[in-house]
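diphosphomevalonate decarboxylase, pasting as requested.
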Amino acid sequence: MKKSDVIRAVFHSLLQEAPNKVWQPQHEKGLGFAPTNIALCKYWGKRDIELNLPMTSSLSIALPDKGALTSVSLHDQSYDRIILNDQEVVRDSAFAVRTSQFLDLFRPQKTGYLQIDIKMNIPVAAGLASSACGFASLVSALNDLFDWKLKKQSLSILARLGSGSAARSFWNGFVEWYAGVRPDGMDSFGEPLAFEWPELCVGILTMSEVEKPISSREAMQRTVNSSLLYGSWPKKVAQDLAILKQAMQVTNFPLLGGTAESNALTMHATMLSSWPPVCYFMPETIAAMHKIWKSRKEGLELYFTQDAGPNLKLLFLEQDKEQVQQLFPSVDIVKVFE
Ligand code: DP6
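Structure tokens follow.
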């Protein structure tokens, strides 16, 4: 079976509507919001490239007020019109092509084009999971426009086909995305974890808003194909997932922060050992890491994680907010549980 047929079969098995009704708007507009998510245990490497099925499970926290708000309506032309933060996106740009190709997976052939209006309050493509909240909010907006009545688990499966990490962007708080074992990916979706940690804060340290030199998609594939160290990654993930859950259970912040930091650094180590090497570190990134390690030695419980970009996300508790602000005056602080 071709992968596109697998995707259509998955889509139609999730829907409650008859296949000929799936692309008929039930309102003038559909609206969806999705928070961005930051992985504490990363998704890095796919067992199926076309279905975005991950090699391992992963675990994230959502940033509740940072994300994407997307509105969709039918567009009376033979192309999708995409507006990102009030600016029309060029039709043959990578962003527009990726979005339209995603929609082509579900809509009837060469018809049903959309006007898509996306508003994001995070930098696009700088390692702050803009594709995760972008695809999750788009799928929620489609669910609204076409009245599919899908539950979040199903939306998570559909959004995953756009970008893997989007599978985790449907809930606030801690979310696990299961790797699953099925070839069609029906068991690979996100699920919220029933832990709350009201004091937990994330600090976004934006050191560069320039587009990343290589996409996470390409970088993870290169890692899987060329890094000898990648063989240890699944073991590291299994260990870290267990420790993170234990840390949540016993509310042990140093254990949570340290495990997240070590997980991110291990992911970057697999990238550095790829060929050609993948390096998302900028001089500012390294300088910030040293500052964090030094303050930690002096007693501050401050940790970081880093994705496919030069920016760091700081992890700390509310009681240390002022100290963190003094250390990094430009930091944007988000409370994970409001
Ligand atoms: C480093 O979800 O962007 O942020 O599935 O190819 O779209 P695709 O990749 P993407 O990768 C995210 C990688 C990461 C780690 C993570 O969020 O878990």
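Note for the archive: Residues 3-192 form a domain with the Ribosomal Protein S5; domain 2 fold (CATH 3.30.230.10).
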